[in-house]
Amino acid sequence: LKMSRLEFYLPLHILLAACLCHSIKAPTTSSQQSFKSGLFNFYHSLILADGKETTVHLLKDIPKRYYFVLEESRVLSPFTITVTPCDVPIEWSILVHRTSASLSGKETQGDHDTQEVSKSQKVPSMVSTIFNYKGNSVETYMGMSSHAALYMLEFLSTERDTHITVYLTTDTTSGHLYPELPMDPRIDVVGIGHTTVTLTWKHSPSVLQHQESIQYCLLVNEKHNYKSLCAAETAIRSSGMKLPPTLALSLSPYLLEPQQVMILSNSELSIINKASSGEVRQICMGTKNTYTVPTLSPSTQYYFDVFVVNLLTNASAAYTGTFARTLEEPEPKVMELKDGKVIQVVLDGKKQKFYSLQYQARHKKIQFTFQLCHGQVQVHITKNGKTVASENLSGLRYFSLKGKLLDTYLVQLRSTEESNSSVKVQVSPHFHKPLFPLLPESLKIKSFSKLRTCNSVTIAWLGTQEESKYCVYKRRIEEDQVWRELQSADRCSGPESRHKSEKVLCKYFYDLNLQRAVTTETIKGLDAGTLYLFDVYLFGPSGIPVRYHSKVVKTRKKC
């Protein structure tokens, strides 16, 4: 038998009204309007499920109503209603429609048709408001009733479309859907560092009773506190971030492992085991009630919310949120540069911090020299607080600057990639005594495929107009080592780091005509079908080497 939704609910409403109005004396004209208005509201309501959390979607300025019925009982029957706003503040109220003893149908003596209610007798209102609230906090109403009554909940959002969750239960003996909060639900900040904040909170009674199904989750962000996980999830979604449908900020099976971290980036939600930069960070730490939040930014205000979560129902309760500002980062240590002295700086790619070098000029003209050894490095040079140079380094780079005596130069270096980088730095007033040799147009090594044999290869490289020393080294490598060797090569290291058996030869050459400043070398005594890594080192007057880009060549298998 099929029927429409209206056909199903209409008889139910009529039955409810009939039950409530059975043997009620006809009210006066003034109370009739209240009575009819109340019933009209009930007719346009939905039934609220008992013992189940209901999600209610609200349109702006349009009220929505739900109702439930309590049967008559010999003893007082408790019930609770919990409403969780998931976004903006809302207004909600509870109205009750009861049978009244004064309108019980027990007629007084006299003619029923002519009897009138005494003017001094006040007829009680059929519909009365027993609770109302406006705000965005999680609010719970606890009531008691022994009479048959019809209750209506009315919800209204005046700011914008939103949604809420509503939980009604008339069975208060079978346990709680929501975990319980302690008497003091505050979060205490017990330690603040440059990049860490330590928090502690009192245990939830639910954790002590049901340890295996309850755990704490901490939400960290830089905007404001959230009064529920539902509110946090809504805020994140409204900012344009993507949340997988089966994994919102409420607990999921993916977060059962302690200290897993959920990072919300600009595009997608991902779970990782270490902290990372992101909009919101959620950390679930089991039943521990003390936690140190790592890898925060210095001098930044963070907001912290702790939720105790029931893993079986996904229901949660929020502690009173708190906030803290991390300490300011200490001024970085500045290393003094000395004339002519070469230093090598290793930069931490993970921290992405600037490494500072300071130099006070003793001459009007000075020259900074940078040799990129590994990775990618950005350099920023200021003179008396004003920027004079800023760029990403590549190979060997000179900066010739003019100024006044005792000008103060500050050199700041940082790695622009996640792995560590390194660079050699020198400052000198002696332009006529360069630290590094004169370099060719290219530091690439070329190999000739047609000249390869089973036991030899021929390579070539560019020289300069200045007579210099060139040394060739080779090393046998495997196929799976090629990428790592080329990526990890230290372009500042000299032949001293190589084994003596790897040395092939050293030679001097130059040509005043740069077009002819090219040299070739055939390396013999190699194994057939084997990969070799070749390096060329260029030495100048100062003896400091410059390494050409490594070249991998494979000998022929058959000849």
TrEMBL record:
Pfam families named among the record's database cross-references: NDNF, NDNF_C, NDNF_N
The keyword Chloroplast appears for this protein: no
InterPro entries the record matches: FN3_dom (IPR003961), FN3_sf (IPR036116), Ig-like_fold (IPR013783), NDNF (IPR019326), NDNF_C (IPR045805), NDNF_Fn(III)_1 (IPR055271), NDNF_N (IPR056225)
Predominant location category: secreted
Residues of the signal peptide: 1-26
Source superkingdom: Eukaryota
Keywords for this protein: Glycoprotein, Neurogenesis, Repeat, Secreted, Signal
Cellular component GO terms held in the UniProt record: extracellular region
Coiled coil: none
Cell location: Secreted
Gene Ontology BP, a term: nervous system development
Task of the protein: Secretory protein that plays a role in various cellular processes. Acts as a chemorepellent acting on gonadotropin-releasing hormone (GnRH) expressing neurons regulating their migration to the hypothalamus. Also promotes neuron migration, growth and survival as well as neurite outgrowth and is involved in the development of the olfactory system. May also act through the regulation of growth factors activity and downstream signaling. Also regulates extracellular matrix assembly and cell adhesiveness.
Descriptive protein name: Protein NDNF
The organism's taxonomic lineage, starting at the top: Eukaryota, Metazoa, Chordata, Craniata, Vertebrata
Gene: Ndnf_1
